[in-house]
Structure formats: C-alpha cells, structure tokens
Amino acid sequence: MINITYKxxxxxGGKPITKEPVLIHKPYLDESDFKAVDQAIRSTFVSGNGPAxxxxxxxxxxxxxxxxxxxTNSCTSALDLAFMVKTFPPGSEVLVPNFTxxxxxxxxxxxxxxxxxxxxxxxxxxxxxxxxxxxxxxxxVAIVPVDYAGNPADMDPILKIARKYKLYVVHDTAxxxxxxxxxxxxxxxxxxxxxxxxxxxxxxTGEGGALVTDDDEIAKKVIFMREKGTDKQSFLVxxxxxxxxxxxxxxxxxxxxxxxxxxxxxxxxxxxxxITKRLEIAKFYxxxxxxxxxxxxxxxxxxxxxxxHIYYILVPPEDKYWIMDALRAEGIMVNVHYTPLHRNKFYxxxxxxxxxxxxxxxxxxxxxxxxxxSLTHDERTKVVEAIMKVMQAS
Length: 394
Ligand SMILES: Cc1ncc(COP(=O)(O)O)c(C=O)c1O
What we know:
Elements: H1 31-42, H2 51-64, E1 68-72, H3 75-84, E2 93-97, H4 102-109, E3 114-118, E4 140-143, H5 155-165, E5 168-172, E6 180-181, E7 184-185, E8 192-196, E9 209-213, H6 216-225, H7 232-237, H8 258-269, H9 271-289, E10 304-305, E11 311-314, H10 320-329, H11 357-365, E12 366-369, H12 377-390
Parallel strand pairs: 2-3, 2-4, 4-5, 5-8
Antiparallel strand pairs: 1-9, 6-7, 6-10, 8-9, 11-12
Helix pairs in contact: 1-8, 2-8, 3-4, 9-12
Pyridoxal-5'-phosphate (PLP) binds at residues 74-76, 100-101, 103-104, 146, 172, 174-175, 196, 198, 209.
C-alpha cells in the first residue's frame, strides 16, 4: 500500500526532486536538420513529392530493405491508403487491436469496412494472439497488428493465422521504425506497413508518415491515390511535356512537402545513434526500477529488438492517477497514453469492458516515462529518484 500522506512528497507540500520539469517528449533536432530544411526551402521546390521526398523514400527503402516507400503527410493517411488500394466486398471485417490510436481503426472505416476489436496482452499492450482466431468470421478480410511502444507484435503466429484465413495484413508500425523482429526490420513483415514521423516519433518530420510495401500492384495504386487520384508523379518524374496530368482513380491529397523530405533524410542519417541513446535510457530505467515493489516493467516480444519509442511502467491501477500527479509534482512529466478504443465514444458500441480484460488491465496500470535522445544522465537519475520517492522504495 502506498502512503499518500507521506509529508516529504511534493504533492503534499514537500520539496520536489526538480524545479526544472523533465519533459516526456522532445524531438532530436540538430544543425543538420536546420541546414537540410534551409537548403530545401531555398531550392523553391516547396510543394509535394519533390526530389528531396523521393531521395528520402529511396534512403528509407534501403534502410528497411523494402522495394517501395511512399512518404505521406501522416501515418493516418498511409493507413487510409492501405485500405483504399483494396476492393473488399461490402460488410467485410477488419481485426484491430483494442489498445491503439484511433488511426488504426480509421484506415478500414474510411474505406467502408467494418472493424472488429481484439483484446491485447495485459503485459505489453500488443494484440493477444490467442484471441485472433475466435474473432475471425467468413466476413474477415484483414488484420492490423500494432507495435505498441515500438515493441513488435508477435508477427510469426499472426502471419500464420493470416495465411490460413487468407487475410490481408497491414502492419501499423507507426511507433516501431528501426525495431527488429527475429532479425527482420518492421516494415518488411506484412503486405503493407505504415510508419509515422510525427514530432513524438523516433525520427520526425514534424508531421508525416510512410506506406511501405514489396507489392507491385499495391505500389502502382498508391502512386495515384496519394496524389488525388492523378498521374502527377509520372509528370514529375518522367518529365513528360504534355503540360497536364490526368485524373485516373479515386484518391486523396497525401503527398508531403519537399521541405520535409529534406528533413526526413537528415533525421534518417541519425536513426541508429538515436535508437542507441533510447536503448541506454531504457536499460538505465530497467536496471534501477526493477527492484521497486508494485511496479512492472515493459515486456519485450520474444526475438525482438525494440526501438524504445516508449518506456512505460505498470503501477497498481487504483493508485495510477495519484502516482501520475505525485510524479508531476516532483517535476517529472509522466503521462498516460491513449485509452482502449472501446472506451471512446466513437467505438463504444463495439465492445464492453468485460470483453476486453487485457486492455483494461494494461491501460489500468500504464504510465509513460520521459525517453528521448537528449534526456541527460542527470534527468534520467531524477526520474528514477522521483519514482523511488513516490513509491516509497527509497
Ligand atoms: C499506433 C498508431 N497508429 C497511427 C498513428 C497515427 O500517426 P500520425 O499522427 O502520423 O497520423 C499513431 C500516432 O501516434 C499511432 O500511435
């Protein structure tokens, strides 16, 4: 039991661990990013899908080891495109883990598909593989595993089930760039994968995303569909002098500015270094927090090397919000993350609490700690000290 009246706690008027708040997120931006953006803007090619975007796509494809990378203005757009390229019968169903960001559900929903929520592993928030087959019906056409915190979903058994039922697999890798699963990078495991480069992610272009695939047919459609259903890409790349381009399919405006393509390249050059920094911080937290009673640490999928996009602890659910407030009072800006989908107005008709015990247990205890390449040794030490103080483990 935690003693919430403990006098030395900052929440009770005691002296905080730090007066300078330790933030939860900070993008890592340096001179090379500023220079890249400056050069790109001076080139005056500021609109979408320019040469810097295509160079970023090429470099990212090499890094991941995939055939096609399409840089988009968000991961949400990439998820929309992943379903826009397919024609499934009306009423088809897509399996979506219940603990994810709304965008995972929006991809199928924007394309007139129904979604079915599948519960998650209470220890790491990823889809509970043992619950997938029971959710499959004759209407199921696809599944969207998510890599929560950068830790990959257990893809081997998921892909085995997908093959058995002929399901299309869209891997929502929004959080897991640079992660490996059994020696393979995420982005190479499914029919399509979708990354995010939002400001909080391991590499960022402010906003941004990518659809990644090895499939030629899907790639052909994405070229049109991300550019409002036009063949503008061939106009840009093949340098045809027709003076116009044609409207060839349905689509949306999902290309990304050339300025941000330049930033993507400068960020990608640092990715290994940035992941190593995150790994050091994660190790520091694990080494120092593992002896504290009443908290659980992240469970990594067997055979995985995670990119440590997020480091979380699981605390007793009944005390979670008090612990969060107490840590913030100490100057450590911990946070909760998204709530299980079925707990949101838009998705509430799809499931009840008792049908989602894994999601309720995981979310119930979840608190995220600061983790980013520029988090100093002093700051990490303060995070640990604050947790020990609040959990009365020191
Ligand atoms: C699992 C997941 N999918 C999709 C997204 C959407 O990413 P974006 O903001 O790039 O659209 C996020 C964003 O955090 C996410 O965590």
